[in-house]
Structures are given as C-alpha cells and as structure tokens.
C-alpha cells in the first residue's frame, strides 16, 4: 500500500501563498486518484482538491476555486497543492489521500499524517 507524507505547511499572512507537497513511497502514484482534504477544529473534513487517476482531470471545492492549484509530478512521485490568496478560513490541517483506480468522489484508503496551515496576521 502506498505511504504518503505531506510537507510545506506553516504560518502565512492573509493574502499570502503556500505550497504543499504529498510525497509517495511504496508504490508509484500512476493509477491513483489523489485528493487534498482539510479539517479545521470543530468542523467536518472537506475535500478541497483532487486529481484523477487517468487523464489528470482536476476538481476544486467552491471555497478554493481560483486560488488553489493541484498538480502531479510523476518523476518525483509527488502531488502538489499550490495555495494562493490565502484567507484565515483556510486555516486547517491539510491531508493528502490516495485511491488506486478510484475517482475523486470515492472513499480514499491511504492517508498522510497531515500538515498544519495557519493563515493569520
């Protein structure tokens, strides 16, 4: 089973940018749908973005559309989430998740440990 490790979180001021990475080991990410999720304290987990397993179609939640960009680097076996124009409401723990031969809207079965993103002045 694939193992996932997120990195790149931190503290950023409103309007700033951060880039998250999701590095995979144990398997190539070919054939996997990869999703980025976030969860803030007291709130439900939210899928913010996903890249499909086949033709690299992308999905974005309404709250991040136009600000976040997901991408996949096969040579590095890594998926990225570039986050621009960050808002305080983007503050959460961000997780990446993988599902082999799945779509962006199924239950993901491999999860990383998460990375904290805090947007505050």
What's the layout of helices and strands?
Layout lengths: L2 E5 L2 E3 L5 E8 L6 E8 L6 E6 L6 E3 L7 E6 L4 E6 L8 E9 L9 E2 L3 E5 L2
Quick description:
About 0% of the residues lie in helices and about 50% in strands.
Give me the strand/helix succession: EEEEEEEEEEE
Overall spatial form:
globular
Broad structural category: mainly beta
Treating each run of at least 4 consecutive H or I residues as one helix, how many helices?
A: 0
Low-confidence stretches: none
Task: Round the mean pLDDT to the nearest integer and report it.
Answer: 95
Distance between the termini: 40 Å
What does the radius of gyration come to? 13 Å
**Main pleated sheet:** 7 strands, mixed
> What share of the residues does DSSP label as strand, in percent?
over 45%
Portion of residues in helices? under 10%
The total beta strand count reads 11
Describe the structure.
The protein has 121 residues and is mainly beta. Helix content is 0%, strand content 50%. The chain is built from no helices and 11 strands. It has strands at residues 3-7, 10-12, 18-25, 32-39, 46-51, 58-60, 68-73, 78-83, 92-100, 110-111, 115-119. Strands 2, 4, 5, 6, 9, 10 and 11 form a 7-stranded mixed sheet that branches. Strand 7 (68-73) and strand 8 form a beta hairpin. The N and C termini lie far apart (40 Å). The model has no long low-confidence stretch (mean pLDDT 95).
